[in-house]
Each structure stands twice: as structure tokens, then as C-alpha cells.
DNA sequence: CTCTCCCT
């Protein structure tokens, strides 16, 4: 009987190659599609192998149910009880004996086991099942075990079992491990595309309703419908109630929902095969893709959408998004119709859309919260994952976020190394936030029983919040006064187990029993211990500012609306603001006490733009939150801080506030002209001045407290002070304010373009000057803008001599008629320069003669 | 306004 059953597994043919790979190379990758029998046949086949000796086999599976069912299956094949040759170990539950050679464990349990026994000495082979699911734990476990094999345990064999997708990459990761392929054993599923709208909305759901109806009338088997979430499940269920009132009433048709928030009893109704003469329609989320198997399904109707969280490392929060599924997920869903016979799958999208789908889901390591992962690495002495063999490295921003939080929890020191406290957190096997909360509560002598309840409730938040917003206090009450003994029995067991663990580790001593009566329990403080990064201050309008600087509003208005401070336990990110779904009030005094080390007192001295003067405030900060804020009188502020504040004001856009005038702007440009041709001269452009640095500015701004005083700063002197004595002397000759032309006028030079200083002057005032005036040590000719007597530009030149010799005569032709009263001599280089008319010149000549 | 799934 046993022999016959064995032969029916397709994987049998591949087993000799697997044994050869493990025997010779010590590693292997077994690729087998569903139904091959790999999970149950391969471990049993390895037991007799010589290389295993007396050592045991570890079979790692991603889920608890998978561990139990695999162990039962294997035990049955050997005609034994679970716990004999084959046993399992999952959270809160184990069936293992001295005789056990194959231990089926969830990956999470195995990571705990490795903390006790890092080299896994009792085991000779580790098998990874369903590795293609690429769970965070699975990736980490393979990385660590490969490392152990490389460094300490050459004899530790590794077999990775996976669907096709990850095989080649895993083989490469394991140094070229042989890849063995086995056929699967599933029935054909005919895939039909039924184009729907491009969004997941009512239109799509109505179309799905019609598709269900069509399948119900044209086929005989049960129908499984994949939808993204509870909202959609209920909508379609309502449609079915309207469409099949009679059938549902008589019980010949049943409609079940499959969602993780439903109780185990409710879920198992959907999984069972129906009685003869009865059919079922199961409306499910992605839970039905892998976690459960449903009997009797012949038709799958796939919406093509999935709802999942998107973690943002920047905020440390996540957001639920509804997206298209991957091709791999679509095949997985279709496959659910082919487990017991030929099936049919309707896909609510077209073939073109299908090609546009992602091939696979992104592995968890690329988008998950990495806090536990990073603590685990720290336990192994690793600062990050770069030293580990991983198919995908985690994103660095998520690693940074995780490291920051671990440091905040005291799990790591300033160098990122794990602390003793961190080791205690890692050993407890719950989220580091929650283990920190427990240990902090215990160190304060609080009631351990209560704290463990809070930890368990927070661990399973979604089971309690049930959509409607509640405070932590309300949830704990709901848990403790639960409807009946059974409903929360699993969670009660977890709470008890935590208490035992704490006692065993000696982390918790019974002394609280004596203090119990004196300690008033405080959920706000507990929440703040677990979520120190999520304390928030009321902005006064019922919205809150998180310590991280992010704003958030209560998802439902209630008494917390008026709480000055709270801890946002569960926050969902929205597009503009975040909404707080679960919170608890915390008192300011408690924050001051708990976060004493992290609160920074800042004396904020700043330039108050409105008042036009320096003001000082003493603020206590916790991250972006201001806990207290009191004014400090000016005379109590140190002069340094005052200068600092003025400096900050001036250097952040206030340089315009200085009393600039024409003269100082020109001085600035003159120095810039020198600087442009010789970088040894200072850069005194607005930007250049700002770059002069704090020390220099502090000297200039010393003693200032208000706008009037700022306006009194002599900018001209400030600019001069950037020059040494030699430079100020040279500035006067090489970049003078003005130039005395032959007529006696002093003409201002425009330095606004340092490459081309300009002097605009009436042509007649330059008679007798044959060379263009030059500036700077490089003798750069001034650009002359020659003007008509009416001050209109006539010519631009940098070569006065050639102007007199040539262009002058052309210009004269045009202008002589227009300005006959002004001199237009034949020999301009010898003529008398003047700013006047000919008549005025005569007069003044007369005057001169008379005086003589 | 209305929460996917899994694990220590």
C-alpha cells in the first residue's frame, strides 16, 4: 500500500539526482511545480542517506498550517504518529521526540533556534520549501545558513525547493548548486480573458457578478472568486444575495467569504467540500492563493487586483494600495481550479494587459519593515546585509530607518552594535517594539500580566480593531472581557507564553506582586515605549504633529480630539495627510520622564521679521515636537547667540537689508572688477560676502539687536574692510571711482560688468585725449560710450585713437548740422575739450583774458 | 470612514 502511493508522486524520478547532488556537492535546487509531492517525499528519502549519519533534517516552511500538514502527511506515509520520526515545531506548539529525524518548522522558529545553536550542530540537512515565495525570513535564513556552511559547517547540506522562478538565481547564490527539475501533477486549466475596465471599481465588480452568473449556469463545480479586500467581498456577496434569493434560501447554493479577519470556524466552512446537491461560491482575498486549499473548485474568477501595504522608509509608516497582481500570482490563482480535475479560469483583463503585468511579486525584503530583520543581523554582528548571500539586497533607506529605530529602542549602541538589551529583545521572538515595551514595563515594576496582554493585542491589532477606530484602552478591554473563552484562546495562550518566557529568562521577578496595588497601569506609556517614534502633539485643531515632523489626523473623532499628546499606534499614510487609526493618550509629564535623554533644550534666538528685532525663546524639543516654549529676555541672552541669530538672518536672504547705496554698490563692483582679473582680490559679490564665513560676519554684526542698528552698518566700510592696506591704495588708482577727462569733468566709471567697465561721456569733452584710459594692473581699456551733446549714444569704442582718425569724420557729417552750436574741429586730437557750446567757450575765453 | 497577508 505504501509502495503504491509512493510511486504515484512525479517527484520520485528526480529523487536519485537530488541524492547525488546532496551527496557529492552538498547543495541542490529542486524545481517542482505543485502536486509533485516534493514537500513530503524528499525529506523522507533523505533519512537513510549515509552522509546524514545520526543527524536530523530541518524542513523550513513559510506558514504554520503548512508545517502541521506536511508533518502529518509524512507521518501517515510511514504509518506513524506525528512526533515519532517526523515532528513539527511552530509557535506555541510542538510535537517532537527523541526519535524525531525530520523536524518541520516555520522559518521564524528556525531563526530563534539559531540563536540558541548558531551552527545547527544536530542537523545535517536544511531543506527550504516554497522558497519562491521569497519571504523576508526565508531570504535571511538562507543567507545565514549558507554563511554557516561556508565558515563553520562544511558538512551541513542545503536543499532549496522552489517553483521555476527563483531556481537559477538560487543555484548561483549557492556557488553553482545543481538544479534538478521535476514535473508537477496538476490538471489542465483553461484560461479565458474577459476584458474589464482598467480600474478596480463597481463597474468591474458588476462585471464579475455577471461572470459568476454565467459560470454558475454553464458549469457544475464550485466557484472561487479572487477580490482585493473586504469591501469588495461584501459588495459581490450582496449582489449574489439579490440574484439568487431562492437558491441561497433553500441551501442548494452557499456563498462564503474567505478573509483573514474571519474566525477559523468561519474560514473552514468555505474550505470543506459541499454535500451532494449543493454548490458553493467562495469570495476570497489573496489568502486563497497559497495559505488554504479549497475542496471542489472547478472555476476560478480572478479580478486581477490585490490590496497590499506599501512601506515608506521615509516615514516608517505604510499605506494600503490596490494594485494589479503579477503574472506569477495570476497563474497561482488559476492553478486553484486544477487541483482535483480539469478547470477553468476567467481573467477580468485582456491578453495585452496580461503581457504588461509584472512577472513576479517583489520579494518582501524590497518593501517590508526591516526592524526585526536588522535586529537579527545585529545579533549576528552584522551592521547591514551586504555581507550576506541574498538574491536581493534590502533598500538602504529602509535599513537606515530600521537602524534609527533600533537605536531609539536602545537595542543598538552608537556604533550600531547590539546591546545587552538588544539581545534580550531579539530572544523574545516578538516585534522588537513590543519586546522593548515589555522589558521597559518590567524594569519599572509594572504588572507583567497586563503588559503581555498589551503586547499580544498589539501584535494582532487587526483582529481587534475591526475597522472602527478604538483607543488601545478600549481594545485591551475588548480582549480581556472577550465574548467567550474560545474566541481569544489563541491570544491568551500567547500572552501566557510570553509571561513564562520572561520568567524563565529571569527578566521578570515576582516582586511586582507586592507593588501591584500601588501602580496605576498606564496604556499611554506602554504605547509610547513601543512606538517612541510616534508620539504626537495636538496642534490645537484636533490634528497632530508626529515627532517625525509628519502631520496626522484622527480617523474618527472622539475623546482623543482634545488630548494634548498621544501615541499614534497605527497610522495609515494618505496622499496629503496621514490618518491615525489606533492611538492612546499620553501625558506631557510622562513624555518628559520617559524621553528625558532624547529631549533637547534649545534656546532659540532668532531675528523676528515682523518685530524687526531679536527675540529669544527657551524650547524643549522632542523631535519635531515642541514640548514647552517660554520667552527669554534679551539681556539674558549671550552676545554670541545674538550675533549668531543676526548672522543667520543676514545670511539667509537678509543681505539686502543692509543700507546699500549707489556709492557702496559701486565700491562692491570696483572690487569685483579687480577680483575678476586677479583672484587674490576678495570676492565681495552678495554671494561672496555670504561665503566669507561666520567669524568675519560676527565681527561686523557684533552688538546688533534690531533693524535700526542693522541699517546703521556702514556698508562702504564693511566692503573696505575686506581689503588690505596695499589693495585699498591700488583700488584708488587701478579701479577709480571716476576719471578726469580733458574738459575737467570727473566722469563716473560703471563697473557693473567686470569684463567691460564703461564710461559714458560727451564726445566733445574728450578732445585732445588720444589714448583710451585703462584700468587694473592688466591695463584694460575702458569701454567708452561716446555721447552727442544731447547725451545720446553715438559710438562705442575701446580704441579712441582710431575713432579720432576715422569714425569721427563720419559721425561729424551726420551731427554737425544737428548740433551747429557745438565745436566739431578738424583735428580733434589737438582741439580744446569742452562740455559747453562754442559761444560759451568764447565767453569764458573772454573772461579768462579779462582776468589776465 | 469602511484593513492585504504571514511569522517569532
Automatic annotation (TrEMBL):
<dbReference type="InterPro" id="IPR007502">
    <property type="entry name" value="Helicase-assoc_dom"/>
</dbReference>
<keyword id="KW-0378">Hydrolase</keyword>
<feature type="compositionally biased region" description="Basic and acidic residues">
    <location>
        <begin position="819"/>
        <end position="829"/>
    </location>
</feature>
<dbReference type="InterPro" id="IPR013689">
    <property type="entry name" value="RNA_helicase_ATP-dep_HrpB_C"/>
</dbReference>
<keyword id="KW-0347">Helicase</keyword>
<keyword id="KW-0547">Nucleotide-binding</keyword>
<dbReference type="Pfam" id="PF00271">
    <property type="entry name" value="Helicase_C"/>
</dbReference>
<dbReference type="Pfam" id="PF08482">
    <property type="entry name" value="HrpB_C"/>
</dbReference>
<feature type="domain" description="Helicase C-terminal">
    <location>
        <begin position="211"/>
        <end position="381"/>
    </location>
</feature>
<dbReference type="InterPro" id="IPR011545">
    <property type="entry name" value="DEAD/DEAH_box_helicase_dom"/>
</dbReference>
<dbReference type="GO" id="GO:0003724">
    <property type="term" value="F:RNA helicase activity"/>
</dbReference>
<dbReference type="InterPro" id="IPR049614">
    <property type="entry name" value="HrpB_DEXH"/>
</dbReference>
<protein>
    <submittedName>
        <fullName>ATP-dependent helicase HrpB</fullName>
        <ecNumber>3.6.4.13</ecNumber>
    </submittedName>
</protein>
<dbReference type="Pfam" id="PF00270">
    <property type="entry name" value="DEAD"/>
</dbReference>
<keyword id="KW-0067">ATP-binding</keyword>
<feature type="domain" description="Helicase ATP-binding">
    <location>
        <begin position="19"/>
        <end position="183"/>
    </location>
</feature>
<dbReference type="GO" id="GO:0016787">
    <property type="term" value="F:hydrolase activity"/>
</dbReference>
<dbReference type="InterPro" id="IPR010225">
    <property type="entry name" value="HrpB"/>
</dbReference>
<dbReference type="InterPro" id="IPR014001">
    <property type="entry name" value="Helicase_ATP-bd"/>
</dbReference>
<dbReference type="InterPro" id="IPR027417">
    <property type="entry name" value="P-loop_NTPase"/>
</dbReference>
<dbReference type="InterPro" id="IPR001650">
    <property type="entry name" value="Helicase_C-like"/>
</dbReference>
<feature type="compositionally biased region" description="Basic and acidic residues">
    <location>
        <begin position="839"/>
        <end position="852"/>
    </location>
</feature>
<feature type="region of interest" description="Disordered">
    <location>
        <begin position="819"/>
        <end position="852"/>
    </location>
</feature>
Amino acid at each position: 500500500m505504501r509502495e503504491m502511493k509512493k510511486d504515484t508522486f512525479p517527484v520520485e524520478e528526480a529523487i536519485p539526482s537530488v541524492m547525488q547532488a546532496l551527496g557529492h556537492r552538498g547543495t541542490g535546487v529542486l524545481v517542482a511545480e505543485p502536486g509533485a509531492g516534493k514537500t513530503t517525499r524528499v525529506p523522507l528519502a533523505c533519512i537513510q542517506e549515509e552522509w546524514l549519519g545520526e543527524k536530523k533534517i530541518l524542513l523550513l516552511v513559510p506558514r504554520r498550517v503548512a508545517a502541521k500538514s506536511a508533518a502529518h502527511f509524512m507521518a501517515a506515509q510511514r504509518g506513524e504518529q506525528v512526533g515519532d520520526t517526523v515532528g513539527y515545531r511552530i509557535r506555541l506548539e510542538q510535537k517532537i521526540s527523541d526519535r524525531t529525524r525530520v523536524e518541520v518548522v516555520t522559518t521564524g522558529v528556525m531563526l530563534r533556534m539559531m540563536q540558541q545553536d548558531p551552527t545547527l550542530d544536530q542537523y545535517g540537512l536544511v531543506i527550504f520549501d516554497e522558497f519562491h515565495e521569497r519571504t523576508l525570513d526565508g531570504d535571511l535564513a538562507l543567507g545565514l545558513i549558507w554563511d554557516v556552511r561556508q565558515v563553520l559547517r562544511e558538512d551541513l547540506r542545503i536543499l532549496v525547493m522552489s517553483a521555476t522562478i527563483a531556481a537559477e538565481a538560487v543555484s548561483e547564490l549557492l556557488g553553482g548548486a545543481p538544479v534538478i527539475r521535476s514535473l508537477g501533477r496538476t490538471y489542465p486549466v483553461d484560461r479565458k480573458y474577459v476584458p474589464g475596465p482598467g480600474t478596480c471599481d463597481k463597474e468591474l465588480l458588476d462585471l464579475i457578478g455577471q461572470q459568476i452568473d454565467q459560470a454558475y449556469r454553464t458549469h457544475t463545480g464550485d466557484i472561487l472568486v479572487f477580490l482585493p479586500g473586504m469591501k469588495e467581498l461584501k459588495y459581490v456577496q450582496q449582489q449574489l444575495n439579490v440574484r439568487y434569493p431562492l437558491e441561497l434560501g433553500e441551501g442548494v447554493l452557499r456563498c462564503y467569504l474567505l478573509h483573514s479577519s474571519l474566525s477559523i470556524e468561519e474560514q473552514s466552512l468555505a474550505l470543506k467540500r459541499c454535500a451532494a446537491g449543493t454548490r458553493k461560491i467562495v469570495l476570497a482575498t489573496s489568502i486563497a492563493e497559497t495559505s488554504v486549499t479549497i475542496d471542489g473548485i472547478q472555476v476560478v474568477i480572478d479580478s486581477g487586483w490585490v490590496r497590499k501595504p506599501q512601506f515608506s522608509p521615509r516615514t516608517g509608516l505604510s499605506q494600503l494600495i490596490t494594485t494589479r497582481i503579477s503574472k506569477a500570482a495570476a497563474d497561482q490563482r488559476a492553478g486553484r481550479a486544477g487541483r482535483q480535475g480539469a478547470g477553468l479560469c476567467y481573467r477580468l483583463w485582456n491578453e495585452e494587459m496580461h503581457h504588461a503585468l509584472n512577472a513576479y511579486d517583489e520579494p518582501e525584503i524590497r518593501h517590508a519593515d526591516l526592524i526585526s530583520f536588522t535586529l537579527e543581523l545585529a545579533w549576528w554582528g552584522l551592521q547591514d546585509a551586504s555581507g550576506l548571500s541574498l538574491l536581493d539586497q534590502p533598500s538602504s533607506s529602509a535599513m537606515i530607518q530600521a537602524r534609527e529605530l533600533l537605536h531609539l529602542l536602545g537595542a543598538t549602541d552608537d556604533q550600531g552594535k547590539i546591546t545587552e538589551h538588544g539581545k534580550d529583545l531579539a530572544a523574545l521572538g516578538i516585534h522588537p517594539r513590543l519586546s522593548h515595551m515589555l522589558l521597559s514595563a518590567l524594569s519599572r515594576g509594572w504588572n507583567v500580566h497586563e503588559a503581555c496582554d498589551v503586547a499580544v493585542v498589539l501584535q494582532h491589532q487587526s483582529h481587534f480593531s475591526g475597522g472602527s477606530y478604538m483607543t488601545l484602552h478600549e481594545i485591551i478591554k475588548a480582549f480581556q472581557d472577550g465574548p467567550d473563552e474560545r474566541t481569544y484562546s489563541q491570544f491568551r495562550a500567547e500572552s501566557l507564553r510570553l509571561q513564562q518566557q520572561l520568567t524563565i529568562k529571569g527578566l521578570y521577578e515576582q516582586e511586582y506582586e507586592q507593588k501591584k496595588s500601588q501602580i496605576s497601569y498606564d496604556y499611554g506609556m506602554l504605547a509610547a515605549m513601543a512606538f517612541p517614534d510616534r508620539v504626537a502633539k495636538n496642534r490645537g485643531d484636533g490634528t497632530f504633529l508626529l515627532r517625525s515632523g509628519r502631520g496626522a489626523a484622527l480617523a474618527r473623532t472622539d475623546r482623543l480630539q482634545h488630548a494634548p499628546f498621544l501615541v499614534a499606534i497605527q497610522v495609515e499614510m494618505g496622499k496629503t495627510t496621514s490618518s491615525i487609526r489606533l492611538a492612546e493618550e499620553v501625558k506631557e509629564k510622562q513624555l518628559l520622564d520617559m524621553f528625558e535623554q532624547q529631549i533637547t533644550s534649545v534656546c532659540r534666538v532668532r531675528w523676528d521679521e515682523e518685530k524687526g528685532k531679536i527675540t529669544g525663546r527657551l524650547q524643549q524639543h522632542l523631535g519635531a515636537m515642541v514640548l514647552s516654549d517660554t520667552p527669554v529676555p534679551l539681556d539674558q541672552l549671550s552676545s554670541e547667540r545674538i550675533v549668531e541669530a543676526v548672522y543667520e538672518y543676514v545670511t539667509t536672504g537678509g543681505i539686502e537689508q543692509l543700507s546699500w547705496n549707489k556709492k557702496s554698490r559701486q565700491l562692491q563692483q570696483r572690487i569685483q572688477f579687480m577680483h575678476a582679473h586677479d583672484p587674490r582680490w576678495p570676492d565681495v559679490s552678495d554671494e561672496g560676502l555670504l561665503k566669507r564665513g561666520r567669524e568675519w560676519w560676527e565681527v561686523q554684526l557684533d552688538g546688533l539687536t534690531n533693524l535700526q542698528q542693522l541699517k546703521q552698518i556702514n556698508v562702504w566700510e564693511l566692503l573696505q574692510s575686506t581689503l588690505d592696506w596695499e589693495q585699498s591704495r591700488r583700488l584708488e588708482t587701478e579701479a577709480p571711482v571716476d576719471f578726469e577727462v580733458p574738459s575737467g569733468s570727473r566722469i563716473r566709471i560703471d563697473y557693473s560688468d567686470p569684463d567691460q567697465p564703461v564710461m559714458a561721456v560727451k564726445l566733445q569733452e574728450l578732445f585732445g585725449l588720444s589714448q583710451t584710459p585703462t584700468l587694473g594692473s592688466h591695463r584694460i581699456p575702458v569701454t567708452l560710450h561716446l555721447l552727442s551733446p544731447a547725451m545720446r549714444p553715438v559710438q562705442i569704442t575701446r580704441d579712441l585713437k582710431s575713432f579720432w582718425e576715422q569714425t569721427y569724420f563720419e559721425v561729424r557729417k551726420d551731427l554737425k548740422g544737428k548740433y551747429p552750436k557745438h565745436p566739431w574741429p578738424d583735428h580733434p586730437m589737438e582741439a580744446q575739450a569742452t562740455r559747453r557750446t562754442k559761444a560759451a567757450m568764447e565767453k569764458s575765453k573772454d573772461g579768462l583774458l579779462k582776468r589776465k
